[in-house]
């Protein structure tokens, strides 16, 4: 059997950067650190950070005066940032630069007097933060049916949730354009997400089975699973390497592995070790990807 690991598997640029910033804070002895929401949608990483003094809190009300709060890669709204500042907390901002760019574009669209439209999932924390930059007129659209039938009464500006499916984004934009003559589009989909998805499709077509490793609550991991399953029905989504059951390898010649953007390399290694325990002669290929600088 051959195991092929997708080139973009493992942490994305934004998560690597966030973990590096947090590790620096831990090394400087600045713990405890509080993260507003789960740092990333990966339980393995969250549990490991907890052991080192990094705790998740569910509500901004739980933040105590004078504590140190991490803003995660998804970012937060300006209003939430204001509340934190009023509480006199030290803010460690790990908002991914690509999310920051999307937030500032929404703000610019609003300042230009246009209607900001965010194509994304309304319940996603990144989108919630972006809505905050767009003000009362901001609209979230996740499918064609969300578009107001009577169209828009002024110019609109569109951005995308960074981890949104590019195909779905294009289709929604096409429908919106039928309802608005004045539209400006900023494709803010993250390039690592695009490459990860493309690479996963390629691998799904070549393999007899795919494993997508990553958090069950991770939007980009779930999207990756949907995409892989479309091209390779024999696809499994596993939250952790320990969920792997060797029985599924029966009759498989080529196994493809891809991961969400918040899956650490050590989880990939743990999965590979479990596969090797089952089959000593397994051939492992890790495809070379682009080396993102952080
Ligand atoms: S998936 Fe892209 S936008 Fe999201 S944190 Fe990673 S690099 Fe940033």
Secondary structure elements and pairings:
Layout: E1 2-5, H1 13-27, E2 33-36, H2 43-51, E3 54-57, E4 68-71, H3 78-86, E5 90-93, H4 97-111, E6 115-119, H5 125-134, E7 139-141, E8 156-160, H6 166-179, E9 183-185, H7 191-206, E10 209-213, H8 219-231, E11 235-238, E12 254-259, H9 265-278, E13 283-286
Parallel strand pairs: 1-12, 1-13, 2-3, 2-4, 4-5, 6-7, 6-8, 8-9, 10-11, 10-12
Helix pairs in contact: 4-5, 7-8
The protein binds iron/sulfur cluster.
Beta-strand content: 15-25%
For the secondary structure, the number of strands is 13
Mean pLDDT over all positions: 92
Judging by the overall fold, what is the CATH architecture of the largest domain?
3-Layer(aba) Sandwich
In the CATH hierarchy, the third-tier topology of the largest domain is known as: Cobalt-precorrin-4 Transmethylase, domain 1
What count of helical segments does DSSP give?
9
Brief characterization of the structure:
With 294 residues, this protein is of the alpha/beta class.
Please characterize this protein's 3D structure:
Strand 8, helix 6 and strand 9 form a beta-alpha-beta unit. By secondary structure, this protein is of the alpha/beta class. The chain has a five-stranded parallel beta sheet, with helices on both faces. Helix 4 (97-111) runs parallel beside helix 5 and helix 7 (191-206) packs parallel to helix 8 (219-231). The protein is built from nine helices and 13 strands. The protein has three domains: 2-11 and 191-286, 3-Layer(aba) Sandwich (Cobalt-precorrin-4 Transmethylase, domain 1), CATH 3.40.1010.20; 14-96, Rossmann fold (3-Layer(aba) Sandwich), CATH 3.40.50; 98-185, 4-hydroxy-3-methylbut-2-enyl diphosphate reductase, catalytic domain (Cobalt-precorrin-4 Transmethylase, domain 1, 3-Layer(aba) Sandwich). The chain binds iron/sulfur cluster.
């Amino acid at each position: 059997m051959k195991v092929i690991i997708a080139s973009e598997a493992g942490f994305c640029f934004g998560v690597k950067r966030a973990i590096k910033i947090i590790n620096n804070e831990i090394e400087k002895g600045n713990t405890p650190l509080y993260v507003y929401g789960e740092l990333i949608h990966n339980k393995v990483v969250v549990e490991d950070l907890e052991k080192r003094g990094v705790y998740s809190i569910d509500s901004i009300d739980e933040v105590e005066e004078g504590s140190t709060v991490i803003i995660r890669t998804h970012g937060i709204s300006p209003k939430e940032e204001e509340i934190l500042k009023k509480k006199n907390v030290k803010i460690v901002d790990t908002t991914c630069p690509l999310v920051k760019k999307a937030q500032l574009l929404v703000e610019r669209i609003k300042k230009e007097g246009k209607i900001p439209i965010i194509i994304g999932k309304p319940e996603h924390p990144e989108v919630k933060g972006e809505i905050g930059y767009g003000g009362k007129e901001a609209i979230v659209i996740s499918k064609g049916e969300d578009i107001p039938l009577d169209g828009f009464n002024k110019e609109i500006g569109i951005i995308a949730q960074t981890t949104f499916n590019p195909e779905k984004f294009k289709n929604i934009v096409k429908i919106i354009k039928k309802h608005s003559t004045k539209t400006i589009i900023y494709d803010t989909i993250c390039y690592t997400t695009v490459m990860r998805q493309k690479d996963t499709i390629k691998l799904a077509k070549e393999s007899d089975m795919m494993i997508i490793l990553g958090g069950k609550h991770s939007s980009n991991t779930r999207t990756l699973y949907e995409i892989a399953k479309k091209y390779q029905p024999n696809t499994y989504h596993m939250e952790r390497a320990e969920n792997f059951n060797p029985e599924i390898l029966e009759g498989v010649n080529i196994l493809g592995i891809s991961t969400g953007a918040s899956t650490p390399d050590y989880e990939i290694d743990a999965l590979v070790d479990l596969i090797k325990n089952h089959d000593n002669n397994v051939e492992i290929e890790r495809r070379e990807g682009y080396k993102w600088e952080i």
